[in-house]
UniProtKB/TrEMBL annotation:
This is Enhanced serine sensitivity protein SseB. Residues 14-129 form the SseB protein N-terminal domain. Pfam families: SseB (PF07179), SseB_C (PF14581). Signal peptide: none annotated. InterPro entries: SseB_C (IPR027945), SseB_N (IPR009839). Residues 146-260 form the SseB protein C-terminal domain. Coiled coil: none annotated. The lineage of its organism: Bacteria, Pseudomonadati, Pseudomonadota, Gammaproteobacteria, Moraxellales.
C-alpha cells in the first residue's frame, strides 16, 4: 500500500465533493489508483483479524455486497485501510486491486466509495462507470453546426453564474492548452426554447481531435455540476481569423473571465494543497 498516494487521493476527493473543478482530476487519479474491497480470494486462509489479499492473475474472488434501500444492493470499496476500518469488522477479509479492474469486473453493478466515512462518500452508477472506462467524464457534448445565416440574441447573463466561472477558472489553470475563456448568454430561437450560457474558448493550435474532445468533456462536466439551476451551456472555439458574429461580440464587447498566466505550470501537489 502507498499511504502517501492514498492521502493525496482522499484530499482531492474531499475537495471534489464541494468544488466541481476538481472532479475530473479526482476521477482520473481514482482510475489509476489501487482500492480496497470486502471479499476474499480462492486461498483457504482463515481470517483471524483484518486480512489483506492482493489480487493476482488467475485468482477467483468473491466480493461482498451490502443491502441498500435505494439500489437493493451496492458494492462498497475504499481508498485506504483507514477508511475501510470505519465500515467493516475486524473479522472480515479484504482485497486490494486496481480501481479500473474493479470497475471492469463488476460492470453493471452499483458501487459506493468510502461508505460511512465522515469526510466524503460517492455512489458510482453503471452509466458513470461506463464513461470512466471510456476515458470520459460524462455525456459527450453534441456538436451543432449552423449551416445558414441565423439571427441570435446575445448579451451578458442577468444572473451571473459566479460559482460556475470560479470552478471553470480553477479547471483552466490546470489545462495549459486553454489560452482564454469568455462568457455570454445566447438565445437561438431556431434551436432553443430558452437562452443558453455560451463559453468562448481560445485554445492552442494543432490540438488533436481526441484532446479537444477530452477538454470538452471536462469543461462540460464542471460547468454542468457548477450550475445552480439546470440549463444549457454551449462551447465555441474562437479562431484568430474569426472576427464576425458571436466571436466578434465576445472579443470586442466582453472581457475574458480567464486568461492563461505566463510562467511555469504548477505541479499537481502545489495545486492540490495551495
Amino acid at each position: 500500500m502507498d499511504t502517501i498516494k492514498e492521502e493525496i487521493l482522499e484530499s482531492l476527493f474531499a475537495k471534489a465533493v464541494h468544488e466541481p473543478a476538481y472532479r475530473p482530476e479526482f476521477l482520473q487519479q481514482l482510475l489509476a489508483a489501487n482500492v480496497y474491497c470486502v471479499g476474499h480470494t480462492d486461498r483457504n486462509d482463515t481470517a483471524i483479524d483484518i486480512q489483506e489479499r492482493h489480487l493476482s492473475t488467475g485468482s477467483n474472488i468473491q466480493l461482498k455486497s451490502w443491502d441498500d434501500d435505494e439500489y437493493t444492493s451496492v458494492l462498497p470499496f475504499f481508498t485506504s485501510l483507514e477508511k475501510m476500518r470505519l465500515a467493516i469488522s475486524e473479522e472480515e477479509s479484504f482485497i486490494c486491486l486496481p480501481a479500473k479492474t474493479l470497475f471492469e469486473m463488476t460492470f453493471g453493478s452499483r458501487l459506493v466509495l468510502n461508505p460511512q466515512s465522515p469526510d466524503a462518500s460517492k455512489d458510482f452508477i453503471p452509466d458513470e462507470i461506463d464513461y470512466l472506462l471510456k476515458g470520459e467524464f460524462g455525456t459527450s457534448p453534441e456538436n451543432y453546426l449552423i449551416e445558414e445565416d441565423t439571427e441570435i440574441l446575445i448579451g451578458q447573463p442577468a444572473d451571473y453564474p459566479t460559482f460556475m466561472v470560479e470552478q471553470l477558472t480553477i479547471l483552466f489553470a490546470t489545462e495549459t492548452d486553454v489560452k482564454a475563456a469568455y462568457l455570454a448568454q445566447m438565445f437561438n430561437q431556431r434551436r432553443d426554447e430558452e437562452p443558453s450560457l455560451l463559453i468562448g474558448l481560445e485554445l492552442n493550435e494543432g490540438l488533436s481531435k481526441e484532446h479537444v474532445q477530452d477538454l470538452h468533456s471536462k469543461i462540460s462536466r464542471v460547468a454542468y455540476d457548477s450550475m445552480q439551476e439546470q440549463g444549457l451551456v454551449d462551447l465555441i472555439h474562437m479562431l484568430d481569423d474569426d472576427q464576425e458574429g458571436v466571436v466578434a461580440y465576445l472579443r470586442d464587447e466582453t472581457e475574458p473571465f480567464y486568461v492563461r498566466a505566463q510562467g511555469k505550470k504548477k505541479g499537481f501537489f502545489a495545486r492540490l494543497f495551495s
